[in-house]
Amino acid sequence: MTLADLWNNTFLVHLSLVRCHLTKLHEVVLPNLRTLDLSYNEITEIRGRFFAGLNNIEFLKISNNPLTGFHLHNFTYTSPLKFFDMSSIRISGIDLSIMSFYPTLVTLNLSGNQIKYVTGQGFPRMMNLQVLDLRQCPLTHFPKEIFQGLERLQSVFADNYKLCCPATLPKGFNVLNCHAPSDEVSSCDDLLRSNVYRVALATFASLSLLGNVGTLLYRFIFHKTTGNVGYDVFVSNLCVADFLMGVYLLIIGIADHRYRGAYVWEDVSWRNSHLCKVTGFVCLLSMEVSVLMIFMITVDRFLVLHFPFSSFHFRKRSAQFTCGVVWVAGLVLAVTPCLPMTSHWQFYSQTSICIPLPTSRVEFPGRKYSFIVLVVFNFICFVLIFVGQVLIYWSIRSSSMSVSNTSKAVNDITIARRLVTVVMSDFLCWFPVGLTGILASYDVAVAGEVNVAMAIFILPVNSALNPFLYTLNIYLERRRRAREEVRQKRISYQIKVGKIVL
User: Fold this and answer.
1) Exposure pattern of 234-250 as b/e (b: 16+ CB <10 Å)?
2) What is the pTM of this model?
3) pLDDT tens digits along 18-77
4) CA 296 centroid distance within chain
5) 4, 158, 246, 347: which could form a disulfide with 366 (CB 3.0–4.6 Å)?
6) CA nearest neighbour of 33 among 13, 61, 9
7) CB within 8 A of 463, min separation 6: which ones?
């Protein structure tokens, strides 16, 4: 059955042609028709003349049709439609000026269309619209005036928090009636929606930048290498990787200050900018190189302590070569989302902080890659690090009695203990990320605040603490040596005085 079979059916009031494989809308005269359901068909276009014979149509449902066009502009007739369901009609962009054809519309459902672009000046001549459903419509590009003409608008349902910003909604609209999930990091006004985030970001950025620069200067100027050449090379490269995390945090902080008070209109341009992509690249590079450097430090300590008399240790050149390989591996992991075959991911443009974490259940292009790198790969690395630490402690325990009197053994044991604090801090930072990512992959609900904590509080803490952990351990070791020297001098003096007395 098609509409042509119902020509001039004067008394027809309600008509449902669901799943009838309709491909075309015939122009019919149904003067008393109030409700028409054409959902789940194969209709590809709607023309304005179709409504000319539907003088009293009030409810129209055309959901789940592969519509490609609305040809309504050449007709002066306007429809008395009040409820229009256009959900899941597979359009990615729409010119809302076609809605001027429905001035009496009260409810409009555009959900499920994945609409990303809205052209024109918003919803014109729709003074009666009260309910608007835009769920499952990302709407990354829309005019500032999109809702300004909807004076009677009462309820809005959306997935993009920007559509519920006061600057977007019409005057007098109650924001509580706009239903959209809030962004985990940003707000309508600011890139970082909380002063707590800003304080944490500024703190970790300062610690990462100053701490790692200070540690590098100390190691290059004041610290003298005493046999641990490979270890020193790895630690220096770890400081460089952690310094890059500070650079990332600094750029995010500057961007937040730059867009303060008007971020809602700058969000798309910022996330799609080259600076955001470079910032995300630096962040991922820093995280992965840091993980790999910790792994190499563990390997170096294991070789030194478990095979103390072997010549198979990292020397300066071999350590430098290994660090070069690690940096290349980090570059490969960070640049993969930018390659031509993965450019459609828009990997570093998914969030306002330019790095997509796999801790959210929200699907985005490249999510599997993010999960593999930040969860699976890092988890494997830290399992190996943990095993290496166990072996190191076993070596220390088994050989402590036999080599405890040599200065080299004492120094190696001290470095092993120093390494434990750094590795444990790394593990405690990455374990929540891995656990949350695994839970999210199994569709376990993860609160938005948890994702914010991952990005702002947990990931940067490694880079902020590592240099101070090294410096603190060095400082404590120096104090221990100073006390030991004082004690030995006191004993020597007492022995000397005792001999004189005798």
Assistant:
1) bbbbbbbbbbbbbbbbb
2) 0.80
3) 999 998 888 888 989 999 999 999 988 887 778 888 889 999 999 999 887 676 655 556
4) 28
5) 347
6) 13
7) 204, 208, 212, 241, 242, 243, 245, 246, 286, 290
